[in-house]
Structure formats: structure tokens, C-alpha cells
Write a structure and sequence with these properties.
Blueprint (H helix, E strand, L loop, with lengths): L8 H17 L5 E6 L4 E6 L5 H17 L3 H13 L19 E6 L2 E9 L10 H10 L5 E3 L5
Antiparallel strand pairs: 1-2, 1-4, 3-4, 3-5
Length: 153
């Protein structure tokens, strides 16, 4: 029997705070969402000045990474291959929560996906910060033994 593991509330809150701290360092407002292995929200925050669509984008990124067990950038690359084979697009996946926007990480511990991290609002700017950079900060706050899964390779 397989034992399913997931992130704890403490881990999720620590990851969200780390993403926000990284954003503060570059004077950027972001949203950060951490979900469990099923894609359900454990912790989230929207910094002042951002409209609600950013938290929804961060949630979709975290959800997608958790349920597809791959980072959203890896999923985007995979999807490009599928389009070349004639598939119609993510709207055909029958789940409106799915996205190929970068900034979603599948959180892995012990070889198993235990959750997802999604960051939004930090798209490339003059400081060079991107949503994936804030997701990296969030992941780093979880400590050793945690990693993310970029693709199928």
C-alpha cells in the first residue's frame, strides 16, 4: 500500500512567507499560494496593491503543478509537443484550473509530490525577478530534502 504524504500547514506558511520576503527585497508585490498533494490550498497571501486575478493565477499554478506532478514550465514545454501532434489546447483537459503559466512548482520530498507552490505578479521586470524566482525562494524555505520537478525527462 502506498503512503500519501503532503505538506503541513507550518511548511506551507513558511514557504509563503519566504516568497513574500523575496518580493519585498526587490520592492515587488506578488501573490503566493501553497497547496497539498491534491491541489487544495494550505496557505496563501496577496501583497498590497495587487488585484484578485493574481491570487487566482498563483492558485492555478500551484494546483496545476501538484496535480500534473510537474512544474508549469515543464508542462508548457510538454504541451508544445502535444500541439505539434494536433492536440487542441489546455481547454481540452476538462479542468478550468489548469494553466501553463510559469511560476508553479511541484514540491517533491522522498521522490513523491507532496504539494505545489504558485507565485504570480513577479513577471520579468528591471530587477530580473520572475514568478519562478519567488517560487524558488518558497521552496528553499522548506529545507533540505525538498525539490521540484521541472519536466518529464
Amino acid at each position: 500500500m502506498q503512503e500519501l504524504r503532503t505538506l503541513s500547514l507550518d511548511e506551507a506558511q513558511r514557504a509563503v512567507e519566504a516568497a513574500l520576503a523575496a518580493a519585498r527585497k526587490v520592492n515587488k508585490a506578488i501573490c503566493a499560494v501553497v497547496v497539498d498533494h491534491n491541489g487544495d490550498i494550505l496557505a496563501c497571501a496577496r501583497m498590497d496593491g495587487l488585484v484578485g486575478r493574481y491570487i487566482k493565477a498563483a492558485q492555478r499554478k500551484a494546483y496545476t503543478a501538484a496535480v500534473f506532478t510537474r512544474d508549469t514550465l515543464g508542462l508548457r514545454d510538454w504541451w508544445k509537443e502535444k500541439e505539434a501532434e494536433g492536440h487542441q489546447g489546455p481547454h481540452d483537459w476538462n479542468d478550468p484550473m489548469l494553466t501553463t503559466l510559469p511560476g508553479g512548482f511541484a514540491v517533491v520530498h522522498g521522490g513523491q509530490v507532496v504539494g505545489g507552490i504558485g507565485c504570480s505578479g513577479g513577471t520579468f521586470d528591471v530587477e530580473g525577478t520572475r514568478d519562478v524566482d519567488f517560487a524558488e525562494s518558497a521552496l528553499g524555505a522548506l529545507g533540505s530534502g525538498f525539490s521540484h520537478r521541472s519536466g518529464w525527462g
